[in-house]
């Protein structure tokens, strides 16, 4: 089993920045076999959508809406993933969820609220 815990959400004005963090925990065996990690978000009344993801080898993928503004990264131990968000706008307001894949199973964090005021 893998547990994911997010931190770093909050309220920010349009044009501001936030950094989200997600730490994975579990047995040594579970942690070592985590594959891709990433961030999804869900705004009120909308479906959950991919924001960014990063593979265990460092290949990244971004939603078109955040390209050039958000940067995903991962620590050397590959047990934590980060999302640096810049030039935020009100459309980025959502609950952001950390996601990890391990041996074909999906794991989710509890979510962290990001609110961007205009």
Features:
1 helix; 118 residues; mainly beta; seven-stranded mixed beta sheet; globular; single chain
User: How far apart are the first and last residues' alpha carbons, in Å?
Assistant: 40 Å
Question: What's the gyration radius in Å?
Answer: 14 Å
The chain-level mean pLDDT equals 95
Q: Give helix and strand order, one letter per element, not per position.
A: EEEHEEEEEEEE
What about the largest sheet?
Answer: 7 strands, mixed
Shape: globular
Describe the structure.
4% of the residues lie in helices and 57% in strands. With 118 residues, it is mainly β. The termini are far apart.
Give the gist of this structure.
This protein is mainly beta and 118 residues long. The chain has one helix spanning 28-32, and strands at 2-7, 10-13, 18-26, 34-42, 49-54, 60-62, 70-74, 80-85, 94-102, 105-108, 112-117.
Task: Please outline the helices and strands.
Elements: E1 2-7, E2 10-13, E3 18-26, H1 28-32, E4 34-42, E5 49-54, E6 60-62, E7 70-74, E8 80-85, E9 94-102, E10 105-108, E11 112-117
Parallel strand pairs: 2-11
Antiparallel strand pairs: 1-3, 3-8, 4-5, 4-9, 5-6, 7-8, 9-10, 9-11
